[in-house]
Amino acid sequence: MLGYKEKTFILLFLVFAVVFFNGGLVEAADSSAQSSLEAPVFNSQVAVVSFLIVLVLILFIWEPLPVGIIAISIPVILITLKNWTEVTAEQALSGFSNNATITVMAMFVISRGIQNSGAVQILGSKIEGFAGDNKKKQVGAIAGLTGVIASAINNTPVVAAFIPMVTNLARRTKVSPSKLLIPLSYSAMLGGTITLFGTSTNILASEVSAKLINHPFGVFEFTKLGIIAFLVGFLYLITIGYYLTPEHISYGDKDLMKGYEMDEFLTEVEIKKDSPLLGESIGEVFKEIEPDLDIIQMTRENEQFMEPLNVKTIRAGDHLVIRATRETLLDFIKTKGIELLPDSQISQSQLEDSVQGQKVIELIVSDNSFVEGKTIKDVNFLERYNASLLAVRHGERIRHNDLKDFTLRAGDVLLLLVSKSTFGRLENNKNFIVEENISEAPAYDTADIGLGIGIIGIVIALASLNIISISIATLGGVVAMVAVNLVDPREIYEAINWEVFFLLAGLIPLGVAIEQTGTAKFIAHQLLKATDIFPPLIILSLFYLFTAVLTSVISNNASVVLMIPVAVGAAQQMGANPFAFILAITFASSSAFLSPIGYQTNLMIYGPGGYKFKDFIVVGTPLLILLSIIIPFFISVFWGI
């Protein structure tokens, strides 16, 4: 049975086959009779670049390799096929030195500085005081605050900072986090459309617009349209969206173990005096047995021990908490002198030890984490962090078996038993987001908050007043963040989302090839042939809708690079305003409401919310249809078509 990726691939292949080749071969046959004013020619250059577009889309959806690796292979392919792509070596490498790439890289670091200052966390901590346990108020407060903050700094770190706050709020007020996390992600996307700095998509679109029509975006050029888009989304999320958003995870009970259905997988046993295992180390015993049986904790004379347990010698009277299926456990203890305790069901309170600092936590794999695409075993996770792994949640699915071979993705949630020192290490590790039931917000220095807000304010002012270029302004912001100790120099490298960096560096030269080979004009001509019965406003809406659907299965930045040249080509052939079409594509690329895979913020909430793939379709489709009508209409009002 085909999965969603396979179905998406077939759909995209059919769409692009129709777009590229509908009438193309006929036009090629008659090309010798065409003048430069007639329909664009389907020649070998267009065919090769069109094939590359389809290939890139398939690879981005299928992901046989990390997206960043796929992206940086694009310049190599373009040069290999330079007779058809017409791309020079300098153009192929232009993405690495592009203003958009540099600005996006700098904004990641500035956003980390704002996050380190505590400004985002302090604001987030005020939500509970305002909303209490009123779910609608919680949704409204989260959506409103997220959108405002995401308008000034990159929206991805905003969501990363808010996820623990939102899940803790849900736990304390016994509200399902599923009800709150989709509004968090959607409002971050829409808030990112308010200013140029809100998302990497805007910055990249500005650069592409500058190259194609010599019109880069001003910092606040589309703010009025962004505010309208955000307000529409906000009103939707607290009305229709509120009722469509599911409630998958229940926090009615504070015991995380119940939420992860651990009843059947954790058991306590006792080592008897006649056990043949006495005197052996746990590591020696368990390396030769069923691989999906793990020792989570040992209790000896009322003292609890956890990872690393391999060197512990087994003694009579030891109590072991074992993670395994009932059948696996019974097979193991038959001849080992081990007794299954009568009341062996394990609760969270039994595992935790406040004296020694052992606690059960949820750990989210952050976007751009080094563990993405790797298994627990590959990264030596349990030994590296001295943690005991209980279960893994991926979207709605909870995994209890074969955990060491589970491939981790952004948004996956690990249920762990950790020590106090391990908790501290994980809390300060930007590869992960720690969810913990805390009653008070951590203390932050108000001076740091003032410095962080002041620096981002100066960067925005310098760029918006055209005193210096946006790339230089943001690099200056990075220097300032380091100078005032809001960002450690060593932290710069981990603050940057290198996948996005390589994605921009690889896609920008593909955009060059699409434009200068005439592929953009050819595709635009094919799209216009299919829609020539509609007025320009309807065509603008269709471009918005198609781009938003595309963004939901590939990255937002890829959608901008692929679709803006096509949209400009269509506008020029219709005699329409190309800037209006660029804005439609830019806003549509921040409308990845239909799936958890098209936008980083959706990926990050997928596991913590326990969502199903269809939840994004159910909640996102009405909003997308609404925006595909409203945004093109207001573009026509403000800028004309």
Automatic annotation (TrEMBL):
It holds the Pfam family TrkA_C. It is a multi-pass membrane protein. GO terms for molecular function: monoatomic cation transmembrane transporter activity. Residues 254-338, 348-432 form the RCK C-terminal domain. PROSITE patterns: RCK_C (PS51202). GO terms for biological process: potassium ion transport. Keywords: Membrane, Repeat, Transmembrane, Transmembrane helix, Transport. Gene3D superfamilies: Regulator of K+ conductance, C-terminal domain. The chain crosses the membrane at residues 44-62, 180-205, 225-244, 451-484, 496-514, 534-555, 575-595, 616-639. GO terms for cellular component: plasma membrane. This is Di-and tricarboxylate transporter. It comes from Halanaerobium congolense.
